[in-house]
Amino acid sequence: MAKILLTKTRENVKPAPQVASFSSKGPNIVTPVVLKPDLIAPGVNVLAAWSPHEENMNYNILSGTSMSCPHIAASAALVKARYPTWSPAAVKSAIMTSASRLDEDGIRIVNSPAGNIAGPFDYGAGQIQPTKALQPGLIYDITVQEYVLFLCRMGYTTPDINSYAPNFRTCPSSKELPELFDLNYPSIAISQLKKYLRLNRRVKNVGPSPKTSYRAVVQAPPGIEVKIVPSLLQFNALNETLSFALYSSD
User: Which contiguous run of DSSP H or E holds residue 59?
Assistant: First the structure.
């Protein structure tokens, strides 16, 4: 004899969050110097709106990237509402740099169901923390022109780029183009490290304090040497922008 029991909500499930087995994972095979994924967000067993057209239901329990996407979109809307003049790249930077690689118990996030420690190709910058994204401290911004030059370096043609930037004329010579890994992205990925590499980033101080300083702390992969120059950034005003270089060698 079989029994059908009422469903119950399970509380305090540990560990949480975890990276779901169906989560879209890296690496980025098209542009390896851009780390993917960027982030993870809640997307398992989410109570969501449902069209009643076919099944006469207004709500359903759903899982997937289509469930995590609204969480990211809402976080972006929250940041944009606080900072209406920020570019999409600045909003994305705030969400990424405020994300966490630790679960609610302060332990590194794991993959589900295996339980092994997750890494950047699993969670990117980590699990979103929308309220912390409202005060990121620093942002990595990217201009339209920088995106265009990035596409030029990737080998896109003028007609290709015109579909994104109608006023674009022509790509500079390859010698004048910045390296792909110098795109001012909030994460760093090096696909082929050959002895020595230098890449550049710039950050803007968005508060709360006009005068503040940030010191670089590096946890390099085994066998890799990483150095940040300068290791200390000292800001004297809001919206001030400073640059740093990352040197890496094997």
Answer: strand 59-62
Query: What is the pTM assigned to this prediction?
Result: 0.91
> Is the separation of the CB atoms in 13 and 162 below 8 Å?
no
Find, among 204, 201, 215, the residue nearest to 241 by Cα.
204
Give the side-chain half-sphere CA count within 13 A for 152.
22
How is residue 181 annotated by DSSP? G
User: Which residue type, as a one-letter code, is found at position 135?
Assistant: Q
48-62 residue pLDDT tens: 888 898 788 999 999
Q: CA 233: distance to chain centroid?
A: 22
Please state whether beta strands 138-139 and 225-229 pair in parallel, antiparallel, or not at all (unpaired).
Answer: unpaired
Find, among 35, 16, 8, the residue nearest to 24 by Cα.
Answer: 35
Q: What is the CA radius of gyration of the chain?
A: 21
Q: What is the CB neighbour count within 10 angstroms for residue 159? A: 8
| Placement of tokens 């001012």 in the chain | 184
Residues whose CB is less than 8 angstroms from the CB of residue 150 and which lie 6 or more positions away in sequence, other chains included? 178, 180, 183
CB–CB of 15/105 below 8 Å?
yes
Length of the chain measured in residues: 250
Give residue 53's pLDDT.
87
Residue type for position 219? Q
